[in-house]
Each structure stands twice: as structure tokens, then as C-alpha cells.
């Protein structure tokens, strides 16, 4: 032991000048901290570089700079395990199963066979050139493995054993919209409910519509779909039983009630494989937009005057044309169809993609029968960038066979070409045979800013029909919209028209966007369907230009549509301008204040009837989370005179609420919207914002009112539960609690979790919260402060800490009354117990200062 008369400074000089006098191993001299070494705890655990105690820590695991998972890992002191540890003096205890999860080719290391499950593998010894680095401050474990030691696994691959099927749960998603006007009231409620148990998902979708006027009312409920679904992980497939839609890779998408087994692209990493339809349009007034797919209403909402974009659709099918109806305040309607089909069907070499369906044909039209049919398709990735595909559709009155091929042309894009031959018997008992040739092309010219998302053409002979057409009860007919109970529109409204005597001939579709750099961007999209023996056609085109300058944005857009059987065409041109207040005030791009987040708008439009509309307004966001949006407008139109509106939408913790008011010269109405989700699980019921297909249940018991990072308006409820909607399937989802929003009595050991949900799952991200008092307690023993570095644990809560140089101990999550176990060595003589009691007001204080005596 060092002589007490030697000062710490002298001891340091002696250690430097005469290193031979030191011990062979590293030695931490307590004299550096205090001249009285009895006031310092046993710090021998620091002598060998083990700056952190061995134990279990939750760490982010990275392999060769690629994130793998967040898991609890047991760490050993470096002298008790063979390995390289650059920091912290700890090495992870990883068994053979963990090495397999890291992608190690264990066959190349036969010696690993001797290790039992759960037994730590000395990586540096068994896997030459491997290395582990623990960044304890950030709880990050970096594992470096030689590339030659790894299996040939695609980047982003997540082993199926990490996929989480979720917890048993009951789910309800609701969306309620209402309109109370001068003539009638209208209410629309859509419900998506479901049950989860293990890998099974049971879902039901339905909608209720209610209209009431002075002397009439109508109420209708329509069941859209019911189905059960589960993943088949070994096949990388999904099994679905009930109501759904077929794929559209080879044949057009069809609704069915039956069974479907199909390959799931989502189960493959991003590097081995999407598209969602975007609906654009132009409204002249505060209009109601309704979107149908396969005869079912899948979306209904209200849009403001001017150009609009809807990019958050959740279709009932992964494909199938979208029928858009825009109903203006004056009762006029715009109708057009947005084609929704995938780009060329290329697959990677060796990849097989299949789709098998058997069931009854199903649509939302009462003009069609429901024949039983079977369908099978197969797509195979071949060498040299080729893909071959084909399939068949079989029904009592219909047979079709399709064959095709695609090719990756490198700099020239990608193409596919296929031919379908079909035999049909129509409702009039006439028999037909014909062929249809389809060509698809996609190309991105990055250097020129051009993106040809889809360019396609289909040519059909006179005798070619689809299964959807064969299902019609009559060869020719109109389908009308439901009668208007208020008789505001006495003339029947045509919703669709078909004439099988004039079969389809050619269909051209295009979707192209062009970036102009600093000068904005252009887009053109549309389609045209021609028919045999008639000059009429279905045509829909949209074009637009948008740009910006110093925060100011503006756009010019045009839409034109024409349908067979409907004499009038729809044409509308619009101009929109948005100017942020921050630009007008000279604050640049600042969005810190509510005033800087406000903006002014101007919109002008004109349609084919010569009706022009002008409108100005202001809008913006409020609240700290910017989850309250508002808009005020005033305008004038040729048909309605002066118009105005006021709207607000609040993205709250337990749902989304919206209110609106609109008026013109002869009517006014109020609109409202409420949407959200309800989740029932083993721990109770949790309310949430609108749910997605796949969701995360956050469980942090006791941690109430804590915000969830990157989730606007989402925070834990009074019990500490919350739902994070719209999780990515078969991908890592980072779930993090914002510690800055915790109250003074809440602490969380680790505020970040990572989950990998399967399709439709409700997975749980659990956080351990400590609820109690934060305190600095000065503990004395025998009239002196407990030794510096003593380890402290509160017996009831399990909170741990370390004593400071004057016996101060900081602890969080403490009960008002408890006992502190203080240890400064290994024997019973090197520990004591300190009872403490804090006043009730401690629960309202940020940090409490107290004292305790240890005996």
C-alpha cells in the first residue's frame, strides 16, 4: 500500500519516472482519488480495462456496417472469453445460432459443430480476422466478419426467424364523414375490422351510407369483403380465403370469392424486388371525391378547389382500374378512369413467382353473373435478363391461355410482350374466339430527368373477350347511379356503359414525368380505349407543370375525358399558386413560428361548359407538433356566385378529426370527419390514429403522455400504451420514445426498439419504464460518507447507481420509502443497508435532495 504521506501528485510522478516499481498488471491506485484509500471502494474491476461490468445489455447489432437487429446480448469480461474487443473490455457471448443469423457460412468452419446451443463461441479464435467493437455510450455492437466467411446473402436480407407474427388482437378501423346542407344531410361510415391469432388474419370491410332530406331518408349497408389470410413462410407466399382480387401480372385483375395462394414480393429484400396508384384531378369547388375499384367504393373524401393529388390509397386490390367521380357543389360531376397496372414483369434469374386462384367471380355490379373460375399464372426469371411468363383462366363459358416474355434492355429500358388467346360464350349464347397482343415498356432516363413509368399498347381481334365481359347478363346496357332521394337531379346519372357487340380493339396508355431541374417538372398521363365497329372511344388524359421559387410554388394542370355512351366530354384547366408568409416577411425558409408556417393561396379554373372559378385563401399548421391544419378561402364562380369555406383538421392521439363550412349564393353546408382505430389486446384496449394493414403496439406501462418519435400526434395513453400505425412488413421498424416528453417521475432503460412484422401483424414493442422519484441521496456510514465508487441498488425497484466522492448517490424511479444496499467490496463487512423515506411532495419535484444513514 502507498504511504499516506505521499501526495497524489508525487505518486503520479513516481509512476511515470519509475515504471519498474509498478505491478506487472495494470494497477489503479486509489491514492489518485483520495489520500485516504479507505474512502474509496474496491475499483479492481477497472484495472484490466473492463470499464463496464459484464452482464446483459440491449445493443444495436451491426455486421460489416449493416444493421442486423436490436437485442439483449450477454457480455463477458475480455479475460474470460477469447476475442478482440476494441472498447469497453467486453466481448459478446454469441452462440452458433447467432452466427448463422449473422450470415456466417458455418459449413466452412467444422470446429463450430462442437459448441452446444447457447454456448459462447470464441470468435477471434474460431473465425480468424473477425472482430467485435462495443460502443457502450451508444450501445452499439459492431461485428466485423471476413467477406469470404459469409454466405451469399442479398443486402438487406432479414432471416425469417426474426419475423414477428405478432400478438393476438382485435382491430377496428373507422372513417366517418358527414355533410349537413341546405337540402339534405349525408353520412358515410366505412369499417375495417379484424382478428389476429398467430399467423392468421381475419378481416371484414363494409360501408354504411345514410341520406336524409325534408320528406325522405335512405340507409344502406354494403359488405365489401371478408377474408382470412396467413403467411406461408417456407414458400414465401400468402394464403387467402374469402373475398379478394386476383393479380394483374398476366391477366386483368378480377374480384373473386374463393381461395388464392400466391408468391409474396414483400418477403424478399428490397435488393431483390412496388407501385401504388396516384390519383390526380382538378376541382372547381369544394367537391366530394369518390373512388371505386371493381365496383366497390374504396375512398371518399372532400377536396378544395384546384389541382389535387391523392397518393395514400389502400385499394381492395393490388391492381385494377380506379373509377374516379368528382361531384362539385353545383351537382355537376367529372368522371374518369385511372389505369392501374404494373410495369414489365421482369424477375431475377432463378426467381419463380406463381399465383393460383379458384372461386366465384365477384364484382360490385348487379349487371354481372358470378361464374366459378380457376386461374393460374407463373413467371420465371431466366438467364441474360429474360423473363418468361404465362397462365390460364378456365370457366364454364370461358377459356383463355396467355404466353409472354420480357427482356431487360439495359440503357434502353425494359419491355414485355405477350399474347392471350380466348374462347368465349356471351349472354346471347354467341360463341367467339380471338387473340389479344399486349406490349409494355418502362424506362428511366436519369441523365435527362425523364421517367417513363408505363407505356403500353394492347391490340385485340374482333372475337376477343375477357372473363369480366363474359360475366355480363346482357350484351349491352347502362348502369346508373343510385336514385337521388331528394330528386335534386331527376335525370338518371349514367355510371357506366358496356356494349359487347363492339368488342375492344386497341388500348394505349402512358405515364411519363419530366424533371426540368430548377425550372420545375412536367407530367403526362392518360389512356385511350378504342372499339371495333365504332368511332367512339374511352379517353382520359392529364398533363401538368409545377415549379417553385424561394418557397413559392405554382402549378398549371389540364384534364380531359370522354366515355363511350356518354355524349358530353369533361375538360378543365386550372392554375394554383401558394406563397408562404415566411417569404413575404423575409424569413426565408423558416417554419419555426405559426406565422411562418402559414401561407396564402390563389386558384383559378375553367371547364368545358365555360364555367370559371377564382379563389383566394390562407392556410397553415398550429400547435407544437404541427398536427392542427387549417384553411380559409373566399372565391367566385360563374355558376354559384360568391363562395367561401373554412376547414380545420386535427391529427390527435386517438384519431383524426376534421370540421368544415362551405357556402355559395343559394346553399351552405357543414362537413365533418372522424377517423381512427381501436385495438383490443391482452393488456386491454388502446385507441389510436387510423390503423394500417400492419401496426406496432407500444407497451411502456406507467409512462403516460410520452411522444413517439417521427409519428405526428402519437403518444402513449394514461396507461403507457400507444399504436404506431403503418409499419413496414418484413423490414426493420425503429420504434423510439421521445425521452424529452417524459415527466420528472418517469425513466426508461432503453427508449429504442426494433421489430420485424409479418403481413397484417400487430407486433409489440415493449419498454421497461421506471416510475418514481428522482433523487440525490447522500449516504453516510459510521459518520463518514460511503466510499467513492460503491455500487448501490434500491431493493424494491431494482434501481442501481454508484456513489460519488462525498457519498452522493443519484437514483431514478424510486418509491417514496425503501432501502439502499451499498457495496464497496466483496465481503459482508464491505456492505451496508440504508433505509430512507421521502416526503409526498417529492412526486411533484424534478430532483429531490435527501440524506440517509447506512448500517
TrEMBL record:
The keyword Membrane applies. It is found in: Cell outer membrane. It comes from the Bacteria. Residues 27-177 form the PapC N-terminal domain. It is a multi-pass membrane protein. InterPro entries: Fimb_usher, Fimbrial_membr_usher_CS, FimD_plug_dom, PapC-like_C, PapC-like_C_sf, PapC_N, PapC_N_sf. Keywords: Cell outer membrane, Fimbrium biogenesis, Membrane, Signal, Transmembrane, Transmembrane beta strand, Transport. Residues 777-840 form the PapC-like C-terminal domain. Pfam families: PapC_C, PapC_N, Usher. Coiled coil: none annotated. Belongs to the fimbrial export usher family. This is Fimbrial biogenesis usher protein. It comes from Buttiauxella gaviniae. The lineage of its organism: Bacteria, Pseudomonadati, Pseudomonadota, Gammaproteobacteria, Enterobacterales.
Amino acid at each position: 500500500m502507498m504511504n499516506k504521506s505521499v501526495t497524489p501528485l508525487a505518486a503520479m510522478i513516481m509512476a511515470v519516472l519509475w515504471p519498474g516499481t509498478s505491478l506487472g498488471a495494470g494497477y489503479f491506485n486509489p491514492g489518485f482519488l483520495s489520500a485516504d484509500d479507505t474512502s474509496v471502494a474496491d475499483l479492481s474491476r477497472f484495472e484490466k480495462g473492463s470499464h463496464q461490468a459484464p452482464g446483459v445489455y440491449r445493443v444495436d447489432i451491426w455486421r460489416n456496417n449493416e444493421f442486423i437487429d436490436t437485442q439483449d446480448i450477454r457480455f463477458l469480461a475480455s479475460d474470460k472469453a477469447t476475442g478482440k474487443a476494441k472498447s469497453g473490455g467486453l466481448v459478446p457471448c454469441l452462440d452458433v445460432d447467432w452466427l448463422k443469423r449473422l450470415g456466417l457460412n458455418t459449413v466452412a468452419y467444422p470446429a463450430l459443430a462442437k459448441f452446444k446451443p447457447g454456448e459462447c463461441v470464441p470468435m477471434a479464435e474460431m473465425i480468424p480476422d473477425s472482430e467485435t467493437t462495443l460502443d457502450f455510450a451508444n450501445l452499439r455492437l459492431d461485428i466485423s466478419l471476413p467477406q469470404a466467411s459469409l454466405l451469399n446473402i442479398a443486402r438487406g436480407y432479414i432471416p425469417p426467424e426474426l419475423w414477428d407474427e405478432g400478438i393476438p388482437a382485435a382491430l377496428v378501423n373507422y372513417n366517418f364523414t358527414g355533410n349537413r346542407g341546405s337540402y339534405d344531410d349525408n353520412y358515410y361510415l366505412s369499417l375495417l375490422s379484424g382478428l389476429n391469432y398467430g399467423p392468421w388474419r381475419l378481416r371484414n370491410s363494409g360501408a354504411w351510407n345514410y341520406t336524409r332530406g325534408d320528406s325522405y331518408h335512405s340507409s344502406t349497408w354494403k359488405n365489401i369483403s371478408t377474408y382470412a389470410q396467413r403467411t406461408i413462410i417456407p414458400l414465401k407466399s400468402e394464403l387467402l380465403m374469402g373475398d379478394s382480387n386476383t393479380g394483374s401480372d398476366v391477366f386483368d385483375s378480377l374480384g373473386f370469392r374463393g381461395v388464392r395462394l400466391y408468391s409474396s414480393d414483400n418477403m424478399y429484400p428490397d435488393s431483390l424486388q412496388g407501385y401504388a396508384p396516384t390519383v390526380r384531378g382538378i376541382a372547381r369547388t369544394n367537391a366530394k371525391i369518390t373512388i371505386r375499384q371493381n365496383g366497390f367504393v374504396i375512398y371518399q373524401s372532400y377536396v378544395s378547389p384546384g389541382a389535387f393529388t391523392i397518393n395514400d390509397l389502400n385499394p381492395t386490390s393490388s391492381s385494377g382500374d380506379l373509377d374516379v367521380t368528382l361531384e362539385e357543389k353545383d351537382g355537376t360531376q367529372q368522371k374518369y378512369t385511372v389505369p392501374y397496372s404494373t410495369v414489365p414483369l421482369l424477375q431475377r434469374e432463378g426467381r419463380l413467382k406463381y399465383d393460383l386462384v379458384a372461386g366465384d367471380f365477384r364484382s360490385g355490379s348487379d349487371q354481372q353473373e358470378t361464374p366459378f373460375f380457376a386461374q393460374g399464372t407463373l413467371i420465371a426469371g431466366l438467364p441474360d435478363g429474360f423473363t418468361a411468363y404465362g397462365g390460364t383462366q378456365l370457366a364454364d363459358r370461358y377459356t383463355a391461355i396467355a404466353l409472354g416474355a420480357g427482356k431487360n434492355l439495359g440503357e434502353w429500358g425494359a419491355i414485355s410482350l405477350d399474347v392471350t388467346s380466348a374462347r368465349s360464350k356471351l349472354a346471347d349464347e354467341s360463341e367467339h374466339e380471338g387473340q389479344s397482343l399486349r406490349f409494355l415498356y418502362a424506362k428511366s432516363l436519369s441523365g435527362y430527368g425523364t421517367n417513363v413509368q408505363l407505356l403500353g399498347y394492347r391490340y385485340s381481334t374482333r372475337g376477343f373477350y375477357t372473363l369480366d365481359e363474359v360475366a355480363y347478363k346482357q350484351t349491352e346496357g347502362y348502369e346508373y347511379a343510385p336514385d337521388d332521394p331528394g330528386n335534386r337531379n331527376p335525370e338518371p346519372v349514367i355510371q357506366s356503359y358496356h356494349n359487347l357487340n363492339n368488342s375492344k380493339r386497341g388500348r394505349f396508355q402512358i405515364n411519363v414525368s419530366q424533371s426540368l431541374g430548377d425550372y420545375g417538372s412536367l407530367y403526362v398521363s392518360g389512356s385511350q380505349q378504342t372499339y371495333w365497329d365504332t368511332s367512339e372511344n374511352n379517353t382520359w388524359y392529364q398533363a401538368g407543370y409545377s415549379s417553385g421559387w424561394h418557397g413559392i410554388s405554382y402549378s398549371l394542370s389540364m384534364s380531359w375525358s370522354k366515355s363511350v355512351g356518354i355524349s358530353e366530354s369533361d375538360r378543365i384547366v386550372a392554375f394554383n399558386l401558394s406563397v408562404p408568409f415566411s417569404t413575404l416577411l423575409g424569413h426565408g425558409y423558416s417554419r419555426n413560428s405559426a406565422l411562418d408556417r402559414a401561407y396564402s393561396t390563389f386558384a383559378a379554373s375553367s371547364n368545358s361548359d365555360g364555367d370559371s372559378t377564382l379563389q383566394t385563401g390562407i392556410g397553415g399548421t398550429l400547435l407544437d407538433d404541427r398536427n392542427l391544419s387549417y384553411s380559409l378561402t373566399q372565391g367566385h364562380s360563374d355558376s354559384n356566385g360568391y363562395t367561401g369555406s373554412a376547414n380545420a383538421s386535427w391529427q390527435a392521439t386517438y384519431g383524426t378529426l376534421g370540421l368544415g363550412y362551405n357556402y355559395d349564393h343559394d346553399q351552405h353546408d357543414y362537413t365533418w370527419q372522424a377517423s381512427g382505430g381501436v385495438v383490443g389486446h391482452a393488456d386491454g384496449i388502446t385507441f389510436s390514429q387510423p390503423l394500417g394493414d400492419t401496426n406496432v403496439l407500444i407497451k411502456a406501462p406507467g409512462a403516460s403522455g410520452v411522444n413517439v418519435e417521427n409519428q405526428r400526434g402519437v403518444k402513449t395513453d394514461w396507461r403507457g400504451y400507444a399504436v404506431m400505425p403503418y409499419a413496414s412488413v418484413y423490414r426493420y421498424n425503429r420504434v423510439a420514445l421521445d425521452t424529452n416528453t417524459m415527466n420528472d417521475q418517469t425513466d426508461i432503460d432503453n427508449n429504442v426498439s426494433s421489430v420485424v412484422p409479418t403481413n397484417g401483424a400487430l407486433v409489440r414493442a415493449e419498454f421497461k419504464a421506471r416510475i418514481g422519484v428522482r433523487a440525490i441521496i447522500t449516504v453516510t456510514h459510521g459518520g463518514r460518507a460511503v466510499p467513492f465508487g460503491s455500487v448501490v441498488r434500491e431493493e424494491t425497484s431494482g434501481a442501481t447507481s454508484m456513489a460519488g466522492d462525498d457519498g452522493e448517490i443519484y437514483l431514478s424511479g424510486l418509491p417514496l420509502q425503501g432501502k439502499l444496499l451499498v457495496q464497496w467490496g466483496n465481503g459482508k463487512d464491505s456492505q451496508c443497508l440504508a433505509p430512507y423515506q421521502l416526503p409526498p411532495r417529492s412526486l411533484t419535484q424534478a430532483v429531490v435532495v435527501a440524506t440517509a444513514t447506512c448500517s
